[in-house]
Amino acid sequence: MPSLSLRIDLDPEGRIGPGKVDLLENIAATGSISAGARAMEMSYKHAWDLVEEMNRIFGKPVVTAQTGGKRGGGATLTPLGQALVSRYRAIEKAASEAAATHIAALQAEIDAD
After folding, report:
1. pLDDT, tens digit (0-9, with 9 covering 90-100), for 62-73
2. Is 16-112 a CATH 1.20.1260.10 domain?
3. Which one, of 99, 13, 112, 108, lies nearest residue 56 by Cα?
4. Were both Cys, which of 1, 16, 77, 81 would link to 62 (CB 3.0–4.6 Å)?
5. Extents of the domains making up the chain
6. Model pTM?
7. Residue 77 and residue 25: Cα distance in Å, rounded?
Protein backbone atom coordinates (compact mmCIF):
# COMPACT_ATOMS: atom_id res chain seq x y z
CA MET A 1 0.00 0.00 0.00
CA PRO A 2 1.41 3.43 -0.87
CA SER A 3 2.04 5.68 2.10
CA LEU A 4 2.93 9.30 2.68
CA SER A 5 6.25 10.34 4.21
CA LEU A 6 6.65 13.93 5.30
CA ARG A 7 9.79 16.04 5.50
CA ILE A 8 9.69 19.70 6.43
CA ASP A 9 12.46 21.97 5.11
CA LEU A 10 13.34 24.40 7.88
CA ASP A 11 16.36 26.14 6.40
CA PRO A 12 18.53 25.57 3.32
CA GLU A 13 20.65 23.03 5.20
CA GLY A 14 18.18 21.50 7.61
CA ARG A 15 14.98 19.57 7.62
CA ILE A 16 12.93 17.47 9.97
CA GLY A 17 11.37 14.18 9.02
CA PRO A 18 10.12 10.92 10.45
CA GLY A 19 13.55 9.63 11.49
CA LYS A 20 14.47 12.64 13.61
CA VAL A 21 11.00 12.78 15.14
CA ASP A 22 11.13 9.05 15.91
CA LEU A 23 14.51 9.62 17.58
CA LEU A 24 13.10 12.42 19.73
CA GLU A 25 10.15 10.21 20.72
CA ASN A 26 12.53 7.38 21.64
CA ILE A 27 14.70 9.73 23.70
CA ALA A 28 11.59 10.95 25.53
CA ALA A 29 10.40 7.37 26.13
CA THR A 30 13.75 6.01 27.34
CA GLY A 31 15.23 9.09 29.02
CA SER A 32 18.47 8.51 27.14
CA ILE A 33 20.03 9.40 23.80
CA SER A 34 21.91 6.09 23.82
CA ALA A 35 18.82 3.99 24.58
CA GLY A 36 16.76 5.98 22.08
CA ALA A 37 19.38 5.26 19.43
CA ARG A 38 19.50 1.55 20.33
CA ALA A 39 15.72 1.33 19.96
CA MET A 40 16.20 2.44 16.37
CA GLU A 41 19.30 0.30 15.75
CA MET A 42 21.28 3.51 15.33
CA SER A 43 24.73 4.31 16.70
CA TYR A 44 24.99 6.71 19.62
CA LYS A 45 27.24 8.97 17.54
CA HIS A 46 24.70 9.19 14.72
CA ALA A 47 21.91 9.95 17.20
CA TRP A 48 24.02 12.62 18.90
CA ASP A 49 24.87 14.16 15.50
CA LEU A 50 21.14 14.31 14.65
CA VAL A 51 20.34 15.95 18.00
CA GLU A 52 23.13 18.49 17.44
CA GLU A 53 21.82 19.17 13.92
CA MET A 54 18.33 19.84 15.28
CA ASN A 55 19.77 22.12 17.96
CA ARG A 56 21.59 24.06 15.24
CA ILE A 57 18.54 24.27 12.97
CA PHE A 58 16.32 25.61 15.74
CA GLY A 59 18.99 27.78 17.34
CA LYS A 60 18.32 26.27 20.77
CA PRO A 61 18.28 22.80 22.31
CA VAL A 62 15.58 20.25 21.55
CA VAL A 63 17.15 17.78 24.02
CA THR A 64 18.90 18.38 27.32
CA ALA A 65 21.45 15.77 28.35
CA GLN A 66 23.07 15.16 31.71
CA THR A 67 26.44 13.44 31.77
CA GLY A 68 26.87 10.12 33.52
CA GLY A 69 28.09 9.62 37.03
CA LYS A 70 27.10 7.49 40.01
CA ARG A 71 23.46 7.74 39.07
CA GLY A 72 24.08 7.72 35.33
CA GLY A 73 23.24 10.32 32.76
CA GLY A 74 20.00 10.96 31.01
CA ALA A 75 18.25 13.05 28.44
CA THR A 76 14.90 14.77 28.18
CA LEU A 77 13.18 16.80 25.51
CA THR A 78 13.07 20.51 26.07
CA PRO A 79 9.73 22.30 25.66
CA LEU A 80 10.86 23.08 22.10
CA GLY A 81 11.62 19.40 21.49
CA GLN A 82 8.19 18.42 22.83
CA ALA A 83 6.50 21.04 20.65
CA LEU A 84 8.49 19.89 17.63
CA VAL A 85 7.27 16.31 18.02
CA SER A 86 3.68 17.39 18.68
CA ARG A 87 3.53 19.83 15.75
CA TYR A 88 5.23 17.42 13.35
CA ARG A 89 2.80 14.62 14.23
CA ALA A 90 -0.17 17.00 13.82
CA ILE A 91 1.10 18.13 10.39
CA GLU A 92 1.75 14.51 9.42
CA LYS A 93 -1.79 13.50 10.43
CA ALA A 94 -3.37 16.40 8.52
CA ALA A 95 -1.31 15.62 5.41
CA SER A 96 -2.19 11.92 5.58
CA GLU A 97 -5.88 12.70 5.92
CA ALA A 98 -5.74 15.13 3.01
CA ALA A 99 -3.94 12.61 0.80
CA ALA A 100 -5.95 9.50 1.80
CA THR A 101 -8.32 9.60 -1.18
CA HIS A 102 -5.47 10.03 -3.64
CA ILE A 103 -3.39 7.28 -2.02
CA ALA A 104 -6.37 4.90 -2.17
CA ALA A 105 -6.90 5.80 -5.84
CA LEU A 106 -3.21 5.15 -6.54
CA GLN A 107 -3.49 1.75 -4.85
CA ALA A 108 -6.57 0.99 -6.98
CA GLU A 109 -4.54 1.80 -10.10
CA ILE A 110 -1.77 -0.51 -8.94
CA ASP A 111 -4.24 -3.30 -8.15
CA ALA A 112 -6.03 -2.92 -11.52
CA ASP A 113 -3.11 -4.37 -13.46
Report:
1. 999 887 655 667
2. no
3. 13
4. 81
5. 16-112
6. 0.88
7. 9
